[in-house]
């Protein structure tokens, strides 16, 4: 029996994870679940999956959850320290890190330091503190498996070479596919007027609101470039973004001998989740088998960096190194939240991020404290720009 902690159980990835787990009660048991604010949804999950522990964001949320779960033997706690506890407890084997944004860093890192098997959906954690995170994984012999569909595809296309340098593995390039999001074809001059509803309507994937907006600006792909750099040890110029609107190929690896390996499937996160849960075995995920005869054509083309300036900003941050990606990530989180709250327009997202990057020096990412200090400075700077606009 694998004992599982799900950080961010009420989110899109959390719900898909529970869906896969429910299909295999003989293999997996839920040890702990967490949610931030959606206490009713978490209570419903607790009644079905009967974890030993549940963690929420605030004391009030915890009190409400205790009421809802009265009579059940479930320990309820709140706050970051409790998240770190359920991520590192000796009573859990595997941690699904599916909190959105920088809030997920501390518990994901706690899981790494406790040597857990980490299923990483929370790409922002790796973007912020890539070197420190990968060092912790190595030092504490944790196992890191990517859930992001592209990185899971790359992992599957690197048979037996995970953790080796790209050169040693004969890798020429990592080809990171991108759907291009909802605005791939929309006239550029109309992007100013995009609403949160339009930005959250992804053509191929159903996801949380923050990652949906990131997909619309293609900041998501930018964060994924940085994520791929840390997971697979590839420098920026060996990671190429390829627009592939159908999202059938989830990414590819191009080798020095001319071979290209790809992973294909229907766009459903239960596939990478099931892959990582069962790795190196395979289990059913509930996803329908891909029927390639249904596809008249699969298209591929180069990304337009003028239409999607966030993609260029992310490459810049990766090349700058140090705490620059943490700066980028924090500014983006603030800008996306402000856009969702209709405080700024869609195109202001890249403007806010660029200004924060231009106006704030980055430093060396020598410690988590240094990364978190950079994160805080970037958030304050981004808030000031949002406020003034
Ligand atoms: P979501 O918004 O649907 O869910 C986020 C979860 O995190 C919720 O359970 C919420 O309660 C919790 N949460 C939010 N803020 C929190 C905080 N401050 N402290 C503690 N918990 C908090 O998001 P999602 O779409 O499930 O994405 C989760 C992560 O997975 C993100 O990092 C995203 O980039 C990544 N990811 C998602 C998908 C997808 O298809 N949804 C695909 C690839 C990667
Ligand atoms: Mg992805």
TrEMBL record:
Keyword Ribosomal protein included in the entry's annotation: no
1-deoxy-D-xylulose 5-phosphate reductoisomerase C-terminal domain segment(s): 144-232
The superkingdom listed in its UniProt entry is: Bacteria
Q: Which UniProt keywords apply?
A: Isoprene biosynthesis, Magnesium, Manganese, Metal-binding, NADP, Oxidoreductase
What EC number(s) is this enzyme filed under? 1.1.1.267
Catalytic activity line of the entry: 2-C-methyl-D-erythritol 4-phosphate + NADP(+) = 1-deoxy-D-xylulose 5-phosphate + NADPH + H(+)
UniProt cofactor(s): Mg(2+); Mn(2+)
Protein name listed in UniProt: 1-deoxy-D-xylulose 5-phosphate reductoisomerase
User: What is the protein's species of origin?
Assistant: Massilia pinisoli
What high-level taxonomic lineage is stated for the organism?
Bacteria, Pseudomonadati, Pseudomonadota, Betaproteobacteria, Burkholderiales
């Amino acid at each position: 029996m694998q004992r599982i902690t799900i950080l961010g159980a009420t989110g899109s990835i959390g719900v898909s994870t529970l869906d896969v787990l429910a299909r295999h009660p003989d293999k997996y048991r839920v040890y702990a679940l967490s949610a931030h604010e959606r206490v009713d949804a978490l209570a419903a999950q607790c009644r079905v999956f009967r974890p030993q522990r549940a963690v929420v964001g605030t004391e009030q949320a915890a009190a409400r959850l205790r009421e809802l779960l009265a009579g059940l033997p479930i320990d309820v706690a709140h706050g970051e320290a409790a998240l770190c506890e359920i991520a590192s407890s000796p009573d859990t084997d595997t941690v699904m890190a599916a909190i959105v944004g920088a809030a997920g860093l501390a518990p994901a890192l706690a899981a790494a330091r406790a040597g857990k098997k980490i299923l990483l959906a929370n790409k922002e954690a790796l973007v912020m503190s890539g070197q420190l995170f990968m060092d912790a994984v190595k030092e504490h012999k944790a196992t890191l498996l990517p859930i992001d569909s592209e990185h899971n595809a790359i992992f599957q296309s690197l048979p037996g070479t995970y953790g080796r340098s790209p050169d040693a593995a004969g890798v020429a390039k990592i080809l990171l596919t991108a759907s291009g999001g909802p605005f791939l074809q929309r006239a550029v001059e109309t992007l100013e007027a995009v609403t949160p509803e339009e930005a959250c309507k992804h053509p191929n994937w159903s996801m949380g609101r923050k990652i949906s907006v990131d997909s619309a600006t293609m900041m998501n792909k930018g964060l994924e470039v940085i994520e791929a750099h840390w997971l697979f040890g590839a420098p920026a110029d060996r990671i190429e973004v390829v627009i592939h609107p159908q999202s059938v190929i989830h990414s590819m690896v191009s080798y020095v001998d001319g071979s290209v390996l790809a992973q294909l499937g229907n766009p459903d996160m239960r596939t990478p989740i099931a892959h990582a849960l069962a790795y190196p075995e395979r289990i059913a995920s509930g996803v329908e088998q891909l029927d390639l005869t249904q596809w008249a054509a699969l298209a591929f083309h180069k990304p337009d960096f003028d239409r999607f300036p966030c993609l260029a900003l992310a490459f810049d941050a990766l090349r700058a190194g140090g705490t620059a990606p943490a700066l980028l990530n924090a500014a983006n989180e603030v800008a996306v939240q402000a856009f969702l709250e209709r405080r700024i327009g869609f195109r202001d997202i890249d403007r806010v991020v660029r200004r924060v990057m231009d106006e704030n020096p980055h430093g060396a990412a020598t410690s988590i404290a240094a990364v978190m200090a950079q994160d805080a400075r970037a958030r304050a700077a981004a808030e000031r720009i949002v406020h003034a606009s």
